[in-house]
Design a protein that fits this description.
Layout lengths: L7 H20 L5 H12 L3 H12 L3 E5 L2 E5 L10 E7 L2 E4 L7 H6 L3 H24 L2
Antiparallel strand pairs: 1-2, 2-3, 3-4
Helix pairs in contact: 1-2, 1-3, 2-5, 3-5
The structure holds zinc ion.
Length: 139
Amino acid sequence: MRRRDPSRQEVRETLRQAEKLVKDSLETAKTDSLSEAIRQLYQVFPKEQWLERAVTRYLLATVEEQSRHTWLVKGVPELGDKKAYYLVTQVGDKYECSCYNAPFGWTRRKNICTHIAAVMLYKRRRYIDEYISDENNDY
Ligand SMILES: [Zn+2]
């Protein structure tokens, strides 16, 4: 991955930033694409802490698209990751993450992991950005 590893300090600050972003997105009518993506994800998964971790991964730019249905998500030790990278794949409308293969993976399977959540956020935001810019191009 192109980006260097974030420092502990950076991760802590990003977590705080993510906390504020999630709160603002849910409580105010901010219309930027990231706030919109956060709101959409919250409608499906109304779990704030989970979202904050996903937003943190997203803000740290740990998501890298490999192909249309495959993403590499860089591990962040401060978020409890043991591996350097996780592979997220999409099959139909289902996602799988390589962290599911780890011990205690079954607990994660019930609660969609935040690697997948970060990918969902990445996809949604890009979709919203493209949709809005397409709309603008029409006029
Ligand atoms: Zn995972």
